[in-house]
Specification:
two-stranded antiparallel ribbon, mainly alpha, potassium transport, Cat_transpt, cell membrane, potassium:chloride symporter activity
Amino acid sequence: MLIIKKIKISYTEIIVFGTLVIILSGALLLSLPISSKSGIVTPFIDSLFTSASAFCVTGLIAYDTFTHWSLFGQLIILLLIQIGGLGFMTVITLFSMFLRRKIGLKERRLLMESANTLKIGGIVMLVKKIIIGTFLFESMGALILTLNFYPEMGFKEGLFYGIFHSVSAFCNAGFDLMGKYGQFSSLTAYSNNFVVNATVMTLIVSGGIGFVVWDDIISSHACFRKLQLHTKIVLVTTTALILASSLLFFVIEADHSMADMSMGERMLASVFQSVTPRTAGFNTINMNEMSEGGNLLTIILMIIGGSPGSTAGGIKTTTFITLLAGAWASAGQSSDISIFKRRLETDTLKKASAITVIYMSIALIAIILISTIQEFPLKEIMFEVFSALGTVGLSLGITPSLNALSKIIIALLMYGGKVGVLSIAAVVAEKKEPALLSRPHEKIIIG
């Protein structure tokens, strides 16, 4: 008698493989002749690259979104961005609620993992808030952008552009339809438009701080003293990064990418450039004209990224602060890590260290591989790799020139950045039975 062993799949594995299925499905749709403006089949590698970039809300593109893809193709990209921004488990739950199906414990655990929240209680209510909040933010953004695009585009095109760019900005995707003003031009045509810049930045930051943070802000009536530690760290770190990097870009890029701008335009561009690498992918300046210092600062911001449970990528703001606080505590010979008069658990530093080490290791391996496969300047390869892994979408122009193998590597980086490098490591790592006995201790020299 043949006995089939029941396969047990963890919640992390369901999310990792479920994401892969959606990306492949999107690639198949984008490769159809109806998806391109020319009516020809788009090579599957390029379709896969675009699908991965859209679902992983990255924004790196092999083809200009406006000039290559038809309306059908653009709608597929928009759908992938929206599902990727919300999280596919959130979308599945939405359909379940629509069909009045009961959401069981397994689905709730998956939602908890997908939303990156700490507790299972109230997870369905949180999902409802995520869906409603997303709709409100994107609707308001679409309305404001439509009113700005309407005078020069007309109502229909202005409305579509408003919706597309609002969804793309809130989901931190970085996809745009501004190829009508020049291929791969992003928002450079609107560099001096305060309303468009302010709206896009607000959407990026709103989507990048995380749904859990918004829920806490509303629950505490925006009283900072009543906020959870996680929310305080996210808000303070996000504000500090924007202010500090805005000032640095204003100074560093004065004689480079912002040389021909007025004082007001320079200030606006500096703030925008401090927001977009974490992790939206829009740009209002010519990225190829940036200084070496500006490029380095952008890479640092791409590595840090947004916040947990958000539409953004990177190692996350909380990871960054935990590492800094851990280093400060270690330098002071303290075993406790305290932030805002609250002590962090020891495992928090371990997880932050693991995420950062795995993240940087993957990035370095990818940089070595691509530099071996193709002859691009190292700076451009580093920029592309960290942009992909951080699901940012900014590029120094080498994306269309990547060969098939390099595109696969970049697509895998986007995939890893979306589902989380720690999740990938957990799935790939060999599962072993826990040892019954603890190993003996021995000291080593560090530093």
